[in-house]
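YM 10:42: FAD-dependent oxidoreductase sequence, as discussed on the call
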Amino acid sequence: MNDSVPNTGNQNEEPQAADGCCGVDGCCTDAERSQDPAVSVLEAKTGAGCGCVSGSSADQDLPVVVIGAGPIGLAAASHLAERGLPFTVLEAGDTVGASISEWGHVRLFSPWRYDTDAAARRLLAPTGWTAPDPGHLPTGAELVTDYLLPLAKTPELADHIHTGTRVIAVSRQGVDATRTVGREERPLLVRTLDTGGTVRDITARAVIDASGTWGNANPLGHSGLPAIGEDTAAPYLTGPLPDVLGRDRERFAGKHTLVVGMGHSAANTLLSLAELAQQAPGTRITWAVRSDSVARLYGGGDADGLPARGALGTRLKQAVQAGAIDLVRSFTITGFTASDGDPATGPVAVTGNTPDGDRTLTADAVVAATGFRPDLDMLREVRVELDPATEAPVRLAPMIDPNFHSCGTVPPHGERDLAHPETGFYIVGMKSYGRAPTFLMATGYEQVRSVVAALAGDRAAADTVQLDLPETGVCSTDLVTEDLLPGASAETDEQGGCGTSCSTAPAVATVAVQQAESSCCGGAVEAAPEPVTIGAGAPARVGFATGRAHGYSGDA
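YM 10:58: structure's back
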């Protein structure tokens, strides 16, 4: 890796410019402010061709550093390679796709035709790579072995990927976040820590943070805070997608598991546990949610644009109705009590508020499927502009706000929506959505295509966002479950609240996939392999099992 720091000249010299140059007040001074509140400083200066935006020619020879070697990070690398821009990919794990490998046992909702990036396919084509069956639903492990690993071995990428290298900070060479004068003339700096404990600084022309959010789980307590005693209960807690039927079977077989959360990760685990309960006597399952309804997760059944996801909601509903899963609604966790912190000696007590007062559930294991949040500590010394609610870039935040959007209602967006006050720094992929669970993998691929085009100076390509995501949600607000929300129709209620998706037969969804998108949350998954037929005849603008077309607001 390039550890060198280029000579950027006398760093005490402060460039001068006339007041009001480039559409800002006091260009390249401490008074720098955009004259148009709707336009950022960077946009104002770039649009006017302000000279103080351009770095030195030496900076242009520095690499673009990509953080993370998952699907979005390697897609960014593929576009950088095609554009002929120098780049380095830094991956904390021991291999590319390390985070995905942790949930490699689960199956994506979206078939292969929607799970790969166009530039990556172009790099793979000359290597003899055979594209997987476009209609097959890959597991996470297949996504890694059949796509990411071959991509990482292509001549264009192989020598640029460094695994076992964790990024611990991003900054500007020689200045902290408070310094404005001459800031954009300096290269970005990426500090890394390798598995041997060595710390290195890498200078970069630009940084694309595609590190995702895996490993930064939301707490189980209320108000965004850990519950009292949650830290001492850590031995009882699992990640959001344990391998219930494989690697982690012993931890759950014949025991009582509490699953907390109302997303597709929770649904996947619940169905795997239900399957385990049929094989291992004594296996018990409790599902606790804060809401008084799980309609959003049950979703649209066979009206789902991705059949596997619709089948997931239908199967989960049937398992609850059959008594295989004990559903506890309106349960807000307030505390954990673990006598000695050892799951081998007894269960943990989980206390929560309910409309009827406090209630305590005991469990041998607690699956924390409460979603993720971004790691922002590493970005303390770069100027990021984040929405206070979602922790996403401020221009992107209104488009992805889970209060008003489900996955497919997020409009197309590109480099201008992802830019920060820190020139050359971008957050992309799942991390760009902050705490919002509305991310689509295909959207991440389009993000990096646009960002790389901008870095290459191709403004027209960067601004031509090529992804068309139609409006989604369940295809009718009446398509709810037996947990009827106010205003649900009697006809829907008579059908068990799932419209045409009710069936006692094995879940086989037959609909047309009419959008080119992946699943929510960076690759949501189906629990157990079941046949899914992708046929014809679905209504136009079919919905998703992610819930109502307008996000959380649909619950009101």
